[in-house]
Structures are given as structure tokens and as C-alpha cells.
Specification:
single chain, binds (2R,3S,4R,5S)-2-(hydroxymethyl)piperidine-3,4,5-triol, 8-stranded parallel beta barrel
Length: 740
């Protein structure tokens, strides 16, 4: 669908105001703003797509404009999206619309799904007293229901202006029965779903880690407008702040008819002095609307993520073995070679050598040294990296490598040479992290940016056969201080500008390499990093049961293709839980499948089970990685199971997952109704990762209507090999549905 933007005259009956609504559209949504010259920009409506007539008649319907960017000082004291102190000490802003314009932005031509363009609408607001300009931008995609909004703030004064608050947007949400869904957690338990009604007061979601930003709160939220969140029905507005650094999302409910949602860079501990002529661009807030409940909003995020945000969102991901849980720091040539041979024999396509391969003066044998010294440790790998790349080649797989470019240790050659490259309050003792010695490099410093870029550049220049980089970040900013910056208030923002600059340079030179964003597990699940990264590590916790909850929550905003999901050994290394291999496979197969163990410790039968699972995953990979996701039964509902499915856009293929999450005597699990299928087509059912007897419906066909109205009776008895059956609680099934 082509872009349409209407400048509506207000000659329609019943309208007397002088405002001229601007109607911004996506295929199924409308955003309507009141853009009256000399007045503040006002938000009128966001929701289902309107006709031109209805968009023009909003005021006649009693809809009243809400400030689209509340500024501090003139009328707005408590609800503020933007605040600045001018050179003369004036702390107020009074922003009035000067003009607005619209233009088409051409989509990234080399992305399969991004054939459609976006329409960019820009409103220029000017302060009535000071030469201070704010451009409010809305980029409306024409192939997915997603609008990205941000501001560009420019100081036209001769003297600097201090920015104190710099939100990307304010979204007014009409009160009614509004519930919020958002994610919380901690290391090894990321992405936990929280759902709560909005109450008077402030719902505050924030991150102040400095480096990573999604272990605890996430910078995304959904508002269910029609009561308690439903996966299938009711209107939902979802929003994601695309930013790699500290953020603040606040939903304020006071004595008006509106909740006000503010999102932006966290203003605590940060301020930006804008020099004469300098502009400050805020990160994008991407928002969507759906009438198909939280599931519909998630599918919008997934489509947009794949089409416009993730690196290579249209390319299938390789099935990999990562060495971390298999050998930790015990890297050596024979072990690496054997692991490569083993994953290749199971049908895998990539081997990733994790931490422990580097350090000459200080070998990296545990986590207390060597970050920054990115020279291969020849005591472990006498023939260097090229030997490993060649070995992978001889096993007919690709090779990937782990790095942590933003960090160093006080025990490293890099730190000995450049003690001023680390973040630490000058004059204070070092505040060290992981291993008791880790330190964050100061990416605000261009010399450090060159160094970080150089790590990747050198690896990729010397070893162009490297196919995959796992980019880790295992420490927050613990001590506020840059030796480089004159103004310490800029530190957090300057760090992430530096990070972005490094990533831009890497992608300009190495557009094809796959890069995973890892940050002590799931610390970097955020759309702010995904334009440079192909995927993220969901969590260091690979326990299948806990992963069901984490991947469920994460899927509210991120597509399966971005979620690295690995089969690991038992007892699980994080929580010591023992689950059957079948259960672990069946969970890992619902994301970007990989393995994270030492294959030489597996039995022949386990290897065969994984070999079969990998072969089957290859067949369903396009469905999982590019399909629409339908969440069917939530693990958070405590019904004893979780179930979801993926369906291709053409509705000709689907994969159904069913995992038992609880086990007790006299348990009665519900029959799961499927979703997203074509009611008029028949689908043949085949079980994947099957062990033992066929289910009664194996090879049978059913109409999409039957499957969606009734579903199949999945036996609740434990399944799998005998010892797996003995672990009564962990039944699981994966069914492939193929349209006839
Ligand atoms: C933390 C990551 O989350 C792990 O997967 C692993 O790469 C280690 N770092 C290595 O130190």
C-alpha cells in the first residue's frame, strides 16, 4: 500500500477550530495531530485507520487535543517530555508550531521484506522567546503498522543551552480499563512478563546500568486498552524505545482523562549542553496498534523487526554449537577441532569459540584478566585463528569467535598501556567488576572507539573466513567518570554515541558478518542495538523450563529469529534442574536453534536425537524464523502447560509447540486451540522430535477451522525414552502442519 497523508481542511460541518489535523497512516492505523501554526503541536488520535472524513471530524466527536511534546515551564510543570535551561538562566520552554512537511523515505532496497517505503512527517516547533527549535518526526511505515518517532533539538542561541530532559516522545492514552504488559527480571531470569492495571500514580520502568539495558526492566511496553490483556482480542498500543543506553519509561496517571506515556533517554545522571548550532537527536520510539490483542501487537513488532530493524532480518540463521557451557575457558586446538567435527556430524552449520582464546602476557584462563589483549594465546592455539577457520572449513561448517570489545581488566597489557582509557571517577580507587578486575572502556573517547573498531577490523582483515562474532559486555558502569570528557554529565549518552559510531563503522566495512549481542546473557535485548546485530543471547540460563517463561516474555516484542536458544547439558549449569533431552530440544527449537554443551559427553543415542532434531529444524526453520507467532496458552497463567505456534504468511505451513510446565497427580490440562491457520484449508500433522509410538493423529489431516475451534488431544502422559518418562513432569510435543 502506498503512503497517504492528508492535510484536511476544516470546512466540514460542526468544526470551528482553526486547527488543521494532519493524518498520518500505516496500512491499518491512523495517527492524527492538530497542527495549528503558532500553537503547540497536539495529539488527537491514534488507533484503527480512519477515513479522511472521520479524521477531520474527531473534534466534532468531542476529541480534544493533548500536548504532543509537553515542555517544562509554561503550564507544564509535572508532565514534561523536554526541559532546558537557557543561557540567561530561564528554565522554561514554550514551543509553538512554525510549519510542517512530509516526504517519502525509501526503504533499504536490499532487505527482502522492505519493499515498501515510509512516510516521514516533520513538525518544526520554535520557542516563543529563545532561538530554540525542536523538530518532531514521525516515520510511518507503509508495509507494517509501526510508526517511529523522535525529536531533533537545535540551539540557535550564541551561548550553550543545557538540556535537562530529552524524551523521544509523549503518547497520551485515553483512560478506561488500561493494563500494561512489560518485562522485568535479572541476570539468568530475563524477560519475565508482568501485567498490571494502570492506577493513579506513575508506572516507572527504567535502566541505569550504563552499558547494557535489559537484564532487569525492558524498554518496551504494551497497553491493553480494553481491560485485562488478551492474546487475541481488544485494542493494544505497544511501544519500544530503540536505545542501547539508560532509559526511562513513565506512564503518568493523574486527575485527567488521560494516561501519559513518556519515553526517552534517562535524564537522571545525564544532561547535555547544546552548543550554538548543535542538534541533539533523541532515539526512536517505535509504536504500534492492533485490535488483535497482545498477540497482534507482537506480530506487528516481529514483522517490523525483521523487515526494518534487525541486521539481516530476512536471512535464515545458522544452527550453531557455542563452546561456553561445554568447555568454559579450557580452549585448545584438539578440543575445538573435535567440537567442530561433532557439531558438523550432527548437521550443525557453525561453531563459535567462546571466551578464553586470547592473552599473551596474561593468559585468559579465568575471568580476571586479559580483556583488551586480543592476541591469540598460542599455548592453547599454537596455529592461531586461521587454523581454526580452516578446520571449520574442512568440517564443512563456518567459524565464529567471541570478543568483548568494550571492556578491559586491570590485569591486562591494554590497561598497563592506557590506564586513562577506562571509565572511573578520576582520583578515586578503581571500581572493578567481573573477576574482581574488569573495567569498562571509555567509548566516548575517539581513540577508544578506534581501538574497539580495530579489534573487529583486525580479526576480519586477517581472517576473512570468520562468519560470526559473539559480542559480549559483562559489566555496568560502576564508577561515573571519563578521563576524556570535559563535561561528566555527558558520560552515559556519549558512551552510547561512541558505541553506535563503532558499530556503524563495523557494519559499513563488514555488512555480512553475523553478530550476536550478548551481555552477561540477555542484557542487550533492545531494538537500539539490532540494526547492527543479527540476534541476542536471551539469557545465560539455558534451563528449558525457565527459558519457556523468558522466551515467552521476550516474544512480546522480539521475533524468534532474534532469540538465540540453545540445547544444553543437565543438570543445568545455572539452576541445576534436570530435564529430558527431548524437552530441551523442543524448547530450543522454538527460537534460533543452537547447542551449548560438550558433544563428546553425550551418548550415541543423544547424539542421534540431536542429529534428527537439527535435520527437522532445518525443514521448519523458515516457519519459525519468518512466520507469524501465535501464543496459545501462557505459562504465566499457571494452567500447567505452555503452547505457541508459528504460521507462514501464506498459511501453508505451521509449527505447533506444546510444553508441560507443571506436573501433579489428577492434573487436567486444557485442549489447546490452534490459531493463525486458514480455516478452509486442510493441514497434515506430523510429529517432530518424535520418540516412540506415533500419536493417533500422525499423518492425518484436519481443517484449519477444526484445529482452531477444537485443537488436538495431546496425551498428557510423559513421553520420550524410559529415563525421560521417569522425569514425569517434562512432556513436550512439536507438531508440523503442512497444508494439502
Ligand atoms: C557471558 C555470556 O553471557 C556467556 O554466554 C559467555 O560468553 C561468557 N560471558 C564468557 O565469558
Amino acid at each position: 500500500m502506498r503512503s497517504r497523508l492528508f492535510f484536511l481542511t476544516l470546512l466540514l460541518a460542526g468544526l470551528t477550530a482553526a486547527a488543521a489535523p494532519v493524518h498520518i497512516t500505516t496500512p491499518r492505523t491512523s495517527l492524527v495531530l492538530q497542527a495549528e501554526q503558532g500553537a503547540p503541536l497536539r495529539y488527537l488520535y491514534y488507533g484503527a485507520r480512519l477515513t479522511d472524513g472521520d479524521a477531520a471530524a474527531l473534534e466534532a466527536a468531542g476529541f480534544r487535543g493533548q500536548d504532543a511534546l509537553p515542555a517544562y515551564g509554561q503550564g507544564n510543570i509535572t508532565l514534561t517530555a523536554i526541559a532546558a535551561t537557557h543561557a540567561d538562566g530561564d528554565m522554561t520552554l514554550d514551543l509553538a508550531l512554525e510549519n510542517w512537511s512530509t516526504r517519502t523515505i525509501h526503504a533499504d532496497a536490499d532487505r527482502m521484506h522492505a519493499a515498501e517505503d515510509a512516510v516521514l512527517t516533520e513538525f518544526i516547533l520554535k520557542d516563543r522567546v529563545h532561538p530554540f527549535t525542536v523538530k518532531v518526526c514521525y516515520k510511518a511505515w507503509q508495509d507494517v503498522d509501526m510508526i517511529e518517532t523522535w525529536t531533533e533539538i537545535t540551539n540557535g542561541d550564541k551561548k550553550p543551552v543545557l538540556l535537562r530532559k530529552f524524551d523521544s516522545a509523549c503518547l497520551p492514552i485515553r483512560r478506561g480499563q488500561v493494563w500494561a504488559s512489560h518485562l522485568t527480571g535479572t541476570w539468568a531470569n530475563e524477560g519475565r512478563l508482568v501485567q498490571e492495571p494502570l492506577q493513579p500514580g506513575v508506572l516507572k520502568i527504567e535502566n541505569k546500568d550504563g552499558v547494557r539495558n535489559s537484564h532487569t526492566s525492558h524498554a518496551e511496553i504494551m497497553f491493553s486498552l480494553d481491560g485485562k490483556p488478551s492474546e487475541t482480542t481488544g485494542q493494544v498500543i505497544g511501544a519500544a524505545l530503540c536505545y542501547s543506553g539508560n532509559y526511562l519509561l513513565e506512564t503518568v496517571t493523574n486527575d485527567t482523562d488521560w494516561h501519559r506515556f513518556f519515553a526517552g533517554i534517562h535524564p537522571d545522571d545525564s544532561a547535555w549542553e547544546l552548543e550554538k548550532g548543535e542538534s541533539f537527536r533523541t532515539p526512536e520510539l517505535a509504536f504500534t496498534w492492533s485490535a488483535e490483542g497482545t498477540g497482534g501487537a507482537s506480530r506487528n513488532f516481529h514483522r517490523w523487526g525483521r523487515a526494518h530493524k534487525l541486521a539481516h532480518g530476512d536471512k535464515e540463521r545458522k544452527i550453531l554449537l557455542n563452546s561456553w557451557e561445554g568447555v568454559y575457558f579450557n580452549i585448545n586446538e584438539p578440543t575445538m577441532d573435535k567440537m567442530m567435527a561433532d557439531i558438523a556430524a550432527m548437521g550443525g552449520e557453525l561453531f563459535v569459540m567462546d571466551d578464553g582464546w586470547f592473552g599473551v602476557k596474561y593468559p585468559r584462563n579465568i575471568d580476571n584478566s586479559s580483556l583488551g589483549d586480543w592476541q591469540v594465546d598460542e599455548r592453547k592455539l599454537p596455529h592461531g585463528i586461521q587454523w581454526l577457520v580452516d578446520a571449520a572449513d574442512s568440517h564443512k561448517i563456518r567459524f565464529g569467535i567471541w570478543i568483548e570489545p568494550e571492556m578491559t581488566n586491570s590485569k591486562s597489557e591494554l590497561y598497563e598501556k592506557h590506564p586513562d582509557w577506562v571509565l572511573n571517577a578520576p582520583g578515586r580507587p578503581l571500581s572493578e567488576g567481573r573477576g574482581g578486575t574488569q573495567l569498562v572502556l571509555d567509548l566516548s573517547n575517539p581513540a577508544v572507539q578506534d581501538f574497539a573498531f580495530g579489534i573487529v577490523d583486525e580479526l576480519m582483515t586477517k581472517y576473512p573466513g570468520i562468519d560470526y562474532i559473539k559480542w559480549d559486555a559483562n559489566m555496568p558502569v560502576q564508577s561515573h567518570g571519563s578521563h576524556y570528557l570535559k563535561d561528566q554529565r555527558k558520560l552515559f549518552i556519549a558512551y552510547h554515541r561512541g558505541f553506535a559510531a563503532v558499530c556503524d563503522r563495523i557494519r559499513a566495512k563488514y555488512p555480512d558478518v553475523t553478530i550476536q549481542a550478548c551481555a552477561s546473557g540477555g542484557g542487550r535485548a533492545n531494538y537500539g542495538i539490532l540494526p547492527w546485530f543479527d540476534e541476542f543471547w536471551v539469557s545465560d540460563n539455558t534451563d528449558a523450563l525457565q527459558r519457556i517463561y523468558m522466551q515467552w516474555g521476550t516474544s512480546y516484542f522480539f521475533p524468534a529469529i532474534a532469540m538465540a536458544s540453545h540445547i544444553s547439558a543437565v543438570p543445568n549449569h545455572t539452576n541445576r534442574r534436570v530435564t529430558p533431552l527431548k524437552f530441551r530440544i523442543d524448547v530450543a527449537m522454538s527460537g534460533r536453534l543452537g547447542m551449548e554443551l560438550q558433544p563428546k559427553d553425550m551418548t550415541e543415542r543423544e547424539i542421534e536425537q540431536c542429529r534428527k532434531a537439527i535435520a527437522e529444524y532445518k525443514e521448519i526453520r523458515p516457519v519459525v524464523q519468518f512466520g507469524d507467532q501465535y501464543r496459545l496458552v501462557s505459562p504465566y497463567d499457571g494452567l500447567g502447560l505452555a503452547s505457541l505456534m508459528y504460521v507462514t504468511e501464506k498459511k501453508d505451513e505451521a509449527v505447533f509447540y506444546w510444553w508441560k510446565t507443571e506436573h501433579y497427580y489428577d492434573q487436567h490440562l486444557p485442549r489447546v486451540k490452534m490459531a493463525g491457520l486458514d480455516p478452509n484449508r486442510r493441514y497434515k500433522v506430523t510429529e517432530l522430535d518424535r520418540i516412540g509410538e506415533a500419536l493417533p493423529f500422525e499423518g492425518q489431516s484436519f481443517s484449519g477451522a477444526f484445529l482452531m475451534e477444537n485443537g488436538l488431544e495431546i496425551p498428557t502422559t510423559p513421553n520420550g525414552y524410559a529415563e525421560q518418562v521417569a522425569m514425569q513432569g517434562y512432556s513436550s510435543r512439536v507438531l508440523r502442519l503442512t497444508a494439502e
